[in-house]
């Protein structure tokens, strides 16, 4: 059958696809968004720690394999809004130095082909679009920016304010973590009209109040209400992209929807499925012109996978921690090094409070020996919870592959771990001075998976951009070198990942690419 034709097809409704479509929607161009999943249901289980973390209620049930053949389920969420439906909404800019070459203890983080200045105005726009709350000039490693955050910083509750004071007394410069959140507050309390109620189920949970600034809430829903030229098809699995005989143009997206085969064509096609799923789609789309996968003449599709070296850690405070909304504080003093280590260490940030059900679901032999009589509820009440991120370096052998039988293999050899271990030691020392036990519990159930392999929240780098088609997949506008009308706007394009959450950078880049595509489509205001 003939394919339905659109000016623009966007594959994926996560932050990269939704932001791009949202920026181009006012043009009146005919835009189709294809989303593999459906809307995440609003239900009481959205707020259940046991359902979300222990049972992985909203996680995709897919079988992938490690390079050693071990089966696992990746931490993916196939819904309108993508993984942003359960993200922590920490929206930080890469540091200015992250765009240049950085020497680490385990190698070199390569320079990007564009500098921070090229992204700065798009960061401004991304912060406005995703309702980012923060305070300029608190973060000692914040990159240059002349404008204030669009919204004021989310206030600390008393125990976190005390932690802030303790860290400052130890010579650090803690800062309010920039958050994408639909919150109005007065004197530390949400106002009557605020969507966000400052609950304890923000970080890693879906929000049934639509108070988290995720891609569905801030992009998809408003766009569909205001622009009839935009169509969203859910439960639309894009099996492959077809090209013309020359291989220079994508001619159709082949879709399975409700058990039926459908085809859609577009003048321009944008893929934004998330770095891992985008690579798989390109590999599934091999043909005579692209025998190793679409846009894969360089052999780089799927390679250079990065996801940060990460730990989610719980410490016990001597006094109860009755904080409800804990994710408000971060420390970047060790981002580029420490007095005893000349290489970058990474970022420390708070994350959501541990719940008793989460702790109960963890493997706790050492803690049960240390605190045999402390019930899980008491441990939760005394907990202080942190997310540590250090940079992992792009390695060609860290890659996602697709077998001839459709089997997905994710090969991942950790690197640059000494920096992460040193960052954890720094946190232990800081907490000792802040009245918390220095013995830390690693919460491996966060996002439902052991972060080492199944944790894919910060996936990046599988189709990096650059000027040389022999070593990169995309050009500087994130168009595939080998195709005239194919773009990628998730974090696949990353050359390195830094040590901050990647979402704001991929949104900023999607907006940048949208302006370029708008020019191609003849949209003067894009």
Q: Brief description of this entry?
A:
By secondary structure, the chain is an alpha/beta fold.
Tell me what the structure shows:
With 526 residues, the protein is an alpha/beta fold. 22% of the residues lie in helices and 20% in strands. The strands form six sheets. Strands 1, 2, 13, 14, 15, 16 and 24 form a seven-stranded mixed beta sheet that branches. A six-stranded antiparallel beta sheet has the order 9-18-19-20-17-23. The two termini are 33 Å apart.
Descriptive tags:
526 residues, six-stranded antiparallel sheet, alpha/beta, globular, seven-stranded mixed sheet, 20% strand, single chain, 22% helix, 24 strands
Shape: globular
Low-pLDDT stretches are 446-451
- Radius of gyration, taken over Cα atoms and rounded to an integer in Å: 22 Å
N-C termini distance: 33 Å
Number of strands: 24
Helix amount, in percent?
A: 10-25%
The major sheet is characterized as:
7 strands, mixed
Protein structure class: alpha/beta
Strand percentage lies at 15-25%
For this entry, what is the oligomeric state of its chains? Answer: single chain
Mean pLDDT: 92
Helix count from the secondary structure assignment? 11
């Amino acid at each position: 059958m003939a394919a339905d034709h659109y000016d623009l097809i966007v594959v994926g409704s996560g932050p990269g696809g939704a932001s791009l479509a949202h920026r181009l929607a006012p043009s009146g161009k005919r835009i189709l968004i294809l989303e593999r999943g459906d809307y995440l249901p609003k239900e009481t289980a959205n707020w259940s720690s046991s359902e979300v973390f222990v049972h992985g209620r909203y996680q995709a049930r897919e079988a992938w394999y490690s390079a050693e053949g071990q089966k696992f389920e990746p931490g993916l969420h196939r819904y309108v809004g993508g993984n942003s439906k359960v993200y922590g909404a920490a929206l930080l800019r890469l540091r200015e130095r992250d765009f240049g070459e950085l020497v680490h203890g385990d190698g070199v983080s390569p320079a990007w082909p564009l500098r921070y200045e090229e992204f700065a105005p798009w960061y401004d726009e991304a912060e406005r679009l995703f309702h980012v709350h923060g305070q300029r000039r608190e973060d000692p490693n914040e990159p240059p920016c002349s404008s204030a955050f669009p919204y004021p910083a989310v206030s600390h509750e008393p125990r976190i304010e005390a932690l802030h004071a303790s860290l400052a007394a130890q010579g650090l410069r803690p800062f309010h973590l920039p958050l994408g959140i639909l919150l109005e507050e007065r004197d530390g309390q949400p106002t009557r009209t605020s969507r966000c109620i400052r609950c304890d189920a923000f970080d890693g949970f879906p929000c049934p109040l639509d108070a988290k600034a995720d891609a569905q809430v801030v992009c998809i829903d408003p766009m569909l209400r205001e622009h009839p030229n935009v169509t969203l098809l859910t439960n639309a699995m894009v099996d492959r992209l077809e090209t013309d005989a020359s291989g220079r143009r994508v001619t159709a997206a082949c879709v399975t929807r409700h058990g039926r085969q459908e085809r859609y064509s577009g003048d321009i096609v944008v893929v934004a499925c998330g770095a891992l799923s985008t690579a798989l789609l390109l590999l599934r789309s091999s043909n005579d012109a692209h025998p190793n996968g679409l846009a894969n003449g360089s052999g780089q599709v799927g390679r250079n996978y990065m996801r940060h070296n990460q730990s989610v850690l719980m410490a016990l405070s001597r006094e109860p921690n009755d904080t409800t909304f804990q994710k408000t504080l971060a420390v970047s003093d060790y981002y580029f090094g420490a007095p005893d280590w000349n290489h970058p260490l990474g970022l420390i940030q708070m994350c959501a409070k541990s719940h008793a059900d989460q702790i109960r679901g963890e493997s706790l032999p050492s803690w049960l020996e240390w605190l045999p009589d402390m019930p899980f509820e008491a441990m939760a009440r005394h907990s202080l919870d942190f997310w540590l991120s250090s940079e992992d370096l792009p390695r060609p052998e860290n890659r996602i592959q697709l077998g001839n039988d459709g089997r997905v293999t994710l090969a991942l050899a950790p690197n640059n771990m000494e920096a992460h271990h040193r960052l954890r030691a720094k946190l232990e020392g800081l907490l000792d001075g802040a009245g918390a036990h220095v013995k830390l519990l690693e919460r491996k159930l966060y996002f439902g998976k052991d972060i080492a392999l199944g944790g894919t929240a910060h996936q990046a780098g599988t189709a990096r951009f650059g000027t040389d088609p022999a070593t990169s997949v995309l050009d500087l506008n994130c168009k595939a070198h080998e195709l005239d009308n194919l773009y990628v706007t998730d974090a696949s394009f990353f050359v390195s990942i830094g040590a901050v959450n990647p979402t704001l950078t991929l949104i900023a880049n999607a907006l940048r690419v949208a302006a370029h595509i708008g020019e191609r489509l003849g949209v003067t205001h894009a």
